Amino acid sequence: MTERARAGTVVLGAGNLSMGDDGLGLAVLRRLREGWTLPPEVELAEGGIWGMTLLPLVEDARRLIVVDAITAGGQPGDPVELGREDLPTRYATRLSPHQVDLRDVFALATLRGTMPGEAVALGLEPLACDWGTELSPVVAAGVDAVASRVVTRLEAWGHAVRPRAVA
Asked: What angle is formed at CA 13 by the lines to CA 15 and CA 17, rounded to 5 degrees?
C-alpha cells in the first residue's frame, strides 16, 4: 500500500440527531463553530451515521478527535475519554450487513495500517439514546465542557485556537 498524504487534524462529530443523547457529537461541533476560530489545518466534520463512507476521512487524518456519546459504564453526563489504544477496533456485531458504525471504520483503518497516529474520543456518558431530537438535560449541560476539552486537545497538539469575539 502506498503512503497517503495526511491531512491535518479532523474533529469528527458522530451520532444521530434523532436519537436523543446520541446527537452529542454534532451539538459539540455546532458549539465549536459558533464559539471558536480554528486554523485551516483543523477540519470539523459531521460524521453523523455515515458509516464506512467516513473511512477516507479517518485514514487521511494525521490526528483525529472523535466526539460522541460514549457508554463506558459511568453515570449520565460523566466525561469520557478514550485514547487511541482504547478505541474499539473490532468489527461490531450487527443484525444486518447494512449496519456499519465507527468501530467498523476504526477496525478497517487499523487493519490497513492507516489509522491516525494520534486519536482520541471525547464525550459524555449518555442518559438516553432513544427517539427524540433533544439532548437530555444532564448531557446538554455538558456540551460546553466537551467543546472545551476538544479545544484543549487541539492546543496541546499545537493548533492556534481562539475564542470568537462576542458581538
From this structure: 35
Grid coordinates given for 7: 491531512
pLDDT at 2: 38
> Are the C-beta atoms of 71 and 16 separated by less than 8 Å?
no
The predicted-structure confidence for 48-82, as pLDDT tens digits, reads as follows: 777 889 999 999 999 999 999 999 999 999 999 99
Residues 6+ apart with CB under 8 A from 146: 24, 28, 67, 79, 122, 123, 124
Task: List, in order of start, the domains of the chain with CATH numbers.
Answer: 7-157 (3.40.50.1450)
- Asked if 34 contacts 144 with a C-beta cutoff of 8 angstroms, the reply is no
